Amino acid sequence: MPLIRTIQIDPETRLGVWSIEEQESFFRERVNISPDIHHPHKRLQHFAGRYLLVTLFPEFPLEKIKVSDSRKPLLLCDSFHFSISHCGDHVAAIVSTKAAVGIDIEEVKDKIERVSHKFLSPSERDFIDPRHSLPHKTICWSAKEAMFKWYGLGSVDFKENLVLQPFVYQSTGFITANFVKPDSNTRLYLQYIMENGLCLAWTHPV
Description:
Layout lengths: L2 E8 L2 E7 L4 H5 L11 H17 L8 E3 L5 E3 L5 E7 L2 E7 L5 E6 L2 H10 L2 H5 L6 H19 L10 E3 L7 E10 L2 E12 L2 E6 L3
Antiparallel strand pairs: 1-2, 2-6, 3-4, 5-6, 7-11, 8-9, 9-10, 10-11
Helix pairs in contact: 3-5
């Protein structure tokens, strides 16, 4: 079974990570959707993400998913709030019946270091552990991606609008953050796990 991690955050919120080892036909037999995606691997990721949603909540109404103008998949009925992230052969999803959620899964790669000046403010760069610079920055990026997906309306400056409070680098932990925009000034709480070269970060209702 390629479901490699599940977390029951609370009675209304669940998280899962799937390692994609199946062929597309496996998901097509179980997920009744017809994605307009031509790239085979992206289509496989899409199927796996949708299948993960119904694995976490079997009653999840996949057929009611719409895509907003900002490209965020959502349910207009708000019966479930969800977020999906893909990375190579892994897909992560978080689902809640309470309120907005966000999730991101990332590989620890050098490109994060190269672009870190674009998403980390000077105060955030100050708390990066120089002994673990790349994984620490990867956690920051993944956390900000999860915040971006939580917001869901696009037009976000990762350096200015997504503000992380200092946190010590470790393999698992918690982050306090502020989402700062004229239409939304919100304190968010995130969790993360760094394992096997992958970083998983998420935010959920408290």
